[in-house]
Every structure is written in C-alpha cells, then in structure tokens.
Amino acid sequence: MWINLTTRIPAPERLRDAIVTHLQQLCHRIEDRRTRVLALSLKGNASVVNANGSNSTTCLVVDDEPAILRLVAVVLRDLGCETLMAPDAESALQLVNNGSPDLVISDIKLPGMDGLELARRLKSDDRFDDRPVLLMSAFGEPRNHDGDGFLAKPFDIDGLVDFVSPYLDRRH
C-alpha cells in the first residue's frame, strides 16, 4: 500500500508497515541477476554486495529493516560501490573493525545501540575524520547529531542517489 493524493493517510501504527511494504516492492523491481550477496563470517549477521569485483568505494549500510538494507545496497552497487550491510550498530562496529568503509549510512532507530551513538563512536575514530557518516530516519532529523548528513524516510531511489552522490564524488 502506498499513499497517494486520493488515498486517506493510514493511522501512524500502519504507516511503518506501508513504508516497509513499498520499499520491499521497490527492491524486488530493481534487483537483477547481477546482484551477488555473499555471507560474511560475522555471526551470520552481515553480508556484502560486490560491485563487479573492482576496486571501488566501500559503503556500510546499517538498518534493521531488510528491505531498506537491500534497496540501499542495490542502489549503491549500481553507483559502483561495494556495500557492506549490518542489521544493528554492534554488527556495524565489528565490520568497521575488520576494515574501514569509505562511507556509512545508518538508520537512527536500531535495536540495541542506536544510530546516533554509532555515529558518535565512528566520528570519534580518527579513521572517520574525512569519511562521511550519514543518518536516516522516518522520525525527523535530531538536533546536534554527529552525522555528516541526514536523509528522511521514506525516500525514493532518485532521492537516495541525489543524497549520496556528493559524498561518493568526494571519495574519487
């Protein structure tokens, strides 16, 4: 279900489900056979999407919604990035300890440690002095966060590309 101008806005408790359903539908439409998902040996929690095996920018996406992880990973892959995915901040920190990504995109509301704390920890790490940490949320942009940018959910693919492209361009 997606909201259009002729549809009544669903109750707040159903809005999240509508957003997730729409993102899942988008993922299924844009995914193709070129996408290869490989499991990492990190407690079975994380996976990596390779961008044609080339030396590319590495991006870490952190979100507890599998549909959003897949959507962002496919879009970043199409932009030429290798994409690491983690369902929570703890898994993301383990991935960062195994190799420092060039860019991090994290949801704010996560199980356990939230995205705000993840951003704070990453930005206190010297490796992230010149590496962007971007935040996203359906609940608005928080004040005084440590992220380098903010993306409001729900977003469309063009909005996601427009949001991350300037940060990726800085890496090249």
Question: How does this model look, in words?
Answer:
It is a single chain. With 172 residues, the protein is an alpha/beta fold. The protein has a single domain, classed as Response regulator (Rossmann fold), CATH 3.40.50.2300. The protein contains five helices and seven strands. Strands 1-2-4-3-5-6-7 form a seven-stranded mixed sheet, with helices on both faces. Helix 1 packs parallel to helix 2 and helix 3 runs parallel beside helix 4. The longest helix is centred in the N-terminal third of the chain and has 19 residues. The radius of gyration is 16 Å and the shape is globular. The N and C termini lie far apart (39 Å). The N terminus is likely disordered.
How would you summarize what this structure contains?
The protein is α/β, with parallel strands linked by helices and 172 residues long.
